[in-house]
Amino acid sequence: GIAKEKIKAGNVDFIRSRAEKIDEVIKEKVDRVICNSAFWQLPAIKTLKAIKNVLKDDGRLMSFSGKPIEKPPLRLLMAEVAVREYGFPLRVASFDLNALKRIFGGESYSIGLPKAIEYQMTAEEIYEFNRIPIMTENFFPELSYRQRMRILDKAYAEFDKNGTYPNKWNFFTAKKKA
User: Fold this and answer.
1) pLDDT tens for residues 3-29?
2) DSSP letters along the chain, please?
3) Which of 39, 87, 89, 91 is 20 to 30 A (C-alpha) from 5?
4) What is the C-alpha separation between 19 and 92, in angstroms, rounded?
């Protein structure tokens, strides 16, 4: 994809696989695994175990996950529309840092404290982000993309489009202790 076109480093390989099966695809241990805002879409426990299996002794997992500072107001409106028109609430999936600590914690690994990067998003940016199919699929798996977009559009019609909304990305590392 795009990253492969832009990054031409000889020491970087791009592998396409289901995350929880990377230890079946990657035959040699690796230095780093980078995960950008994906754990909420994955079977986290299986994926973390697979990552642990592919890391070299001095390897590191580096992960970034987006998390609103407050409950996202557009998602709350989407939940209201989903309840009102489809009869079920919005389910919010999230990555559990405790799962990372259970798998990578203990005596052999250290988990860096999450660090945060905070920024502001406009209403339009939030709307466009939620139009990406996967962004609503986990919340409304029973509905088609078209139905999810109807919910998003109805919620956006009620959404306050003035000003900006806070957002935060957390990042952390897991590495073997020396």
Assistant:
1) 778 787 887 777 788 888 989 999 889
2) -HHHHH---TT-----S-GGGHHHH--S-EEEEEEES-GGGS-HHHHHHHHHHHEEEEEEEEEEEEE-SS--HHHHHHHHHHHHHHS-PPP-----HHHHHHHH-TTTEEEPPPEEEEEEEEHHHHHHHHHSHHHHHTT-TTS-HHHHHHHHHHHHHHS--SSEEEEEEEEEEEEE--
3) 39
4) 21
User: For residues 133-154, b (16+ Cβ closer than 10 Å) or e, as one string?
Assistant: eebbeebbeebeeeebbebbeb
Query: For every residue of 156-170, which 3-state class applies, written as one string?
Result: HHHCCCCCEEEEEEE
For residues 19 and 21, what is the distance between their CA atoms, to the nearest angstrom? Answer: 5
